[in-house]
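#lab-general

N.A. 3:47 PM
ok so I finally got the sequence cleaned up, no stray characters, all 279 residues accounted for. can someone with queue access submit it? mine expired

B.Y. 3:52 PM
send it over

N.A. 3:53 PM
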Amino acid sequence: MAVEVDLHLHTLASDGRLTPTELVRLVASQGLKCVAITDHDTTEGLAEAYEAAKDFPDLRIIPGIELSADIPGDEVHVLGYFLDYADSDFQEQLQQFRAGRVDRAKLMVKKLDSLGVHLEWDRVQAMAGDGAVGRPHIALAMVEAGYCKEPKEAFPEYLARNGLAYVERSKLTPEGAVEIIRNVGGVAVLAHPAYMNDMESGIANLSRCGLTGMEVHYAQYDDDTIRQLARLAREYQLIPCGGSDYHGLGNTGEPLPGSNGPSMESVELLEEAALKAAE
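B.Y. 4:20 PM
back already:
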């Protein structure tokens, strides 16, 4: 069965490399019927995406976000859907998160310099443009400077959580991320749970945070992982979600939008949950 839903997509508003318009055209060409734009700490790409989607009346765009949270010894990402993203308090919080991203990225560039990886901060900032700066922008600058061939090669040694140049962000708990999403009428979903250090116990613990769903149909998971996650979603009564996590960074083998995704029924269940929470 063809994939019609992709609930995890990034644009130039954060660390994706396509403008919202370009992404909308791409997902439409892939035959998708319902997508969520889930940029990191920003909803700035949504207005342009909705305008571009007028050319594709069969395409529905769900307003989304991706927030980073910390648990002891690990980092988790929480996706939010069906947000009242125009809320002024919400936007003020996101602005603070983005300012923290800049401070963190500057510190990572400084650490890289001490390790012999010399990057100009202005170049990293230029990679981000007007978007929320993130580790992929540093990775892109490292590729440009010749320190690695592809952005993903920068992570294991330098930019990943245990990398030599990693810098912690200001702490946000999963409970805090869920609360932020709920406060603007959204529903919270655990992103790429198989990346957690202890997946099963992590899902068990985080299911008590007020999550509505978890990613199961993630483009970079093999069939066995998807089956395992589907079982856990049933066990903890979480709606099975997912998508491609598309950034367009140019890494070899990066899945395109629509490579994997949940059913339309999952979208309906998420929307029902959001409406019920708003009652």
